[in-house]
Design brief:
binds protoporphyrin IX containing FE; alpha+beta; nine-stranded antiparallel sheet
């Protein structure tokens, strides 16, 4: 028999995402790990208890899918496909050697996601994922103008304290268990005292609505489904999300914006008015140009009176990638209750995908009239890592 932690590490190193069902003892044989049943048993052991604890059949309901922290890309960007409902995102400065800091963050992530870290207080990590990005100041130390070196410019409707603009390092922590993200972030901070916190934000996502096939997306605080248009296939992700540039291959550009929303003002609009602001029906999420939730919006469609069915200042028109001349970004946003609004998070291969979209929105997006952005930053979400290649080592070297 091997321990749960060892088994988890074997699967992590193989880049596996595992599906879980019940096991009576919590023990796992090396041979049974190679079978689907063995993989399932491991997942249940992780879901239901701290490492080493015995799991009984009564814990079947706790089954979750662990997310391998290692691989070509970091977890928490394109996987898991079913985005976890709870998030905490922390932005920090780094007071120390980036190579050493990142390597130790990677080690913390492996211990946290395998349930071995004391910061989790014995709570199962479940589908915990932790994604780390490095800010422009540190990226410029290794390459003056490579990916991730450009800061995010200021845009209209910002009200940002300087501590909430930019920063050296972001950690996006997501999990299904609402207790896990804050504990996991605390675990990393315990292990890496060189992290100096700037700001943090919690977020949640409601139940997902099916868009098509395996793609689903949740409603946001406005009541509209958010995250419908998204790159999903490997080819789409390769075109839109992943950087292919030398040392940063496998990385992505992360943008985060804390957007407070004047919900009372938005709600004062009749539903048809709200739908005009977004460009989709609220109940069905279908584009106002017709079709169903999974259909692309038709920006050319006109009513018999000659007006555009998607209003000229509708959010989906102003944010649409085609007129902006950019690929589709991967959005992974979370609703916030304090402050009320949206923690907008997007991943893209180039910063201009975000900036050109934001510029077009700033010209005349009706949705922006209800928003005030109070924190903002861009970071290079590092390439994936494994046991031989510590987090950040392709860029900052081994510590
Ligand atoms: C308060 C902030 C925001 C809210 C509540 C919001 C909400 C929405 C909703 C409901 C949709 C339609 C459904 C969908 O395709 O997901 C949408 C689409 C979209 N949003 Fe936002 N959004 C916000 C900010 C942003 C920002 C800052 C950007 C990027 C600069 C952005 C980029 C997009 C894009 C690219 C689409 C897809 C357009 C398409 O191809 O149909 N959004 N958003």
């Amino acid at each position: 028999m091997i321990g749960v932690a060892d088994a988890m590490r074997m699967l992590s190193e193989a880049g596996a995402i595992i599906i879980v069902v019940a096991n009576e003892t919590g023990g796992i044989s090396r041979r049974s790990l190679l079978t689907s049943g063995g993989i399932a048993a491991l997942g249940t052991a992780l879901a239901g208890c701290a490492p080493g604890e015995q799991v009984g059949p009564d814990r079947v309901a706790d089954a979750v899918r662990p997310v391998a922290p290692m691989g070509e890309h970091q977890a928490g960007i394109s996987r898991p496909a079913a985005v976890q409902p709870h998030l905490i995102l922390g932005v920090h400065d780094v007071d120390g050697d980036p190579a050493s800091v990142l390597a130790r963050i990677g080690e913390s992530i492996v211990r946290l996601t395998s349930g071995e870290h004391p910061a989790l207080a014995g709570i199962a990590p479940g589908d915990l994922s932790m994604t780390v990005g490095v800010g422009p100041r540190l990226m410029r130390q290794v390459d003056a103008d490579g990916p991730g070196t450009e800061p995010l410019p200021a845009f209209p409707r910002e009200d940002v304290d300087e501590r909430h603009r930019g920063g050296d390092l972001v950690i996006q922590v997501c999990a299904s268990d609402p207790l896990v993200p804050a504990l996991a972030l605390a675990g990393v901070i315990d292990d890496v005292p060189e992290l100096v916190e700037r700001w943090r934000q919690c977020g949640t996502r409601g139940p997902s609505v099916e868009v098509h096939g395996t793609h689903s997306a949740p409603r946001n605080v406005l009541g509209f489904v958010d995250g419908i248009a998204a790159p999903l296939t490997d080819d789409e992700l390769a075109e839109s999300v992943w950087i292919r540039h030398r040392a940063t291959a496998g990385a992505s550009i992360l943008v985060v914006r804390r957007m407070e929303i004047d919900l009372a003002a938005f709600r004062r609009l009749p539903v048809a008015g709200q739908e005009g602001v977004i460009g989709r029906e609220r109940a069905s999420s279908a584009p106002l140009s017709g079709g169903e939730i999974g259909d692309d919006v038709d920006l050319q469609a006109k009513s018999p009176d000659g007006s555009y069915m998607i209003p000229v200042d509708a959010h989906v028109r102003r944010a649409h990638p085609r007129p902006a001349g950019v690929p589709l970004m991967l959005r992974r946003s979370y609703s916030m209750d304090d402050p009320l609004g949206l923690l907008f998070v997007s991943y893209q291969a180039e910063l201009r995908t975000f900036t050109q979209t934001m510029e077009r929105m700033s010209e005349s997006d009706a949705l922006l009239d209800f928003t005030r952005t109070t924190a903002t930053g861009t970071f290079l979400a590092l390439p994936g890592f494994d046991a031989q290649h510590p987090l950040g080592s392709t860029i900052f070297g081994a510590s």
